[in-house]
Amino acid sequence: MRTEEGEEYIERLEEFVEQHRARLKEMLRAYGPGSTPASHGRYALIGQPE
Question: 20 to 30 Å CA-CA from 17: which of 6, 23, 24, 39?
């Protein structure tokens, strides 16, 4: 991303979060810290990004 795109990116990201807030909260609850997948000691997507 070019430097001049940074502000537009932030605005687009904020819009995305507002549009999908409920789904993001549910995903964080289901897969984030304290969830069953997290209890295995690591996050699979972080450990294997490919």
Answer: 39
Range 27-35, long-range pairs (CB < 8 A, 24+ positions) = none
C-beta of residue 37 within 8 angstroms of C-beta of residue 31: yes
Helices and strands in the chain: count of H runs, count of E runs: 2, 0
Query: How much is the average pLDDT of 10-32?
Result: 92
pTM of the model: 0.60
Structure tokens at 33: 């810290």
Whether 38 and 32 have beta carbons less than 8 Å apart is answered as yes
Structure tokens at 26: 């549910």
